[in-house]
Design a protein that fits this description.
Blueprint lengths: L1 H10 L1 H23 L5 H23 L4 H27 L19 H6 L11 E2 L2 E2 H26 L5
Antiparallel strand pairs: 1-2
Helix pairs in contact: 2-3, 2-6, 3-4, 4-6
Length: 167
């Protein structure tokens, strides 16, 4: 009974990807707009990969059902990219990994012109603005994205083992 339920969930991988990535984006935007948390540059990068998951999931569900597995592979890869960016961001927040130079707000020198100062992000990627259970939002993104990437790849293996061999 449990195995049957798992197989049914795996068969609906595009919907699971669409719903989960949409919920992650809704949560991030609600923190931004309702709580006033301003995202840093690395936070925005992580959102782009989740938008790719939404895009590939919609293509898989509505447009190209014949190529659904290919789009699930792309969605899983996008989740992996999001996870990588989340790990990098978390490592930078904790001081274990170097961050991009565009992400720190301490690059202002006396030689900086006014336009450079205005175009620079005011939120440092090293600042942890939100955490739950001692894990930052970037850390949660890394964990959840890695789990969802694994789900995508397992759903592809399940399809190949159970459905492709019958035709």
């Amino acid at each position: 009974m449990v195995i049957t339920l798992i197989k049914k969930i795996l068969m609906h991988a595009p919907a699971v990807c669409l719903i989960s990535s949409s919920l992650m984006l809704i949560f991030a935007y609600s923190l931004e707009h309702l709580s006033g948390l301003v995202p840093c540059e690395m936070c925005l990068w992580q959102r782009w990969s989740l938008f790719l998951v939404v895009f590939f999931s919609i293509l898989s569900i509505l447009v190209f059902k014949k190529y659904s597995n290919l789009f699930i592979l792309f969605a899983g890869s996008s989740f992996l990219i999001s996870s990588f960016l989340g790990i990098w961001h978390s490592g930078y927040e904790m001081g274990y990994l170097p961050g991009p130079t565009s992400c720190s707000n301490n690059n202002i020198s006396l030689q900086s012109n006014f336009e450079e100062i205005l175009n620079q992000s005011m939120v440092s990627c090293q600042d942890i603005l939100w955490s739950f259970l001692g894990i930052s939002l970037a850390g949660w993104n890394a964990i959840i994205s890695l789990l969802l990437a694994t789900f995508c790849f397992i759903s592809l293996i399940n399809y190949r083992l159970n459905y492709e061999s019958k035709y």
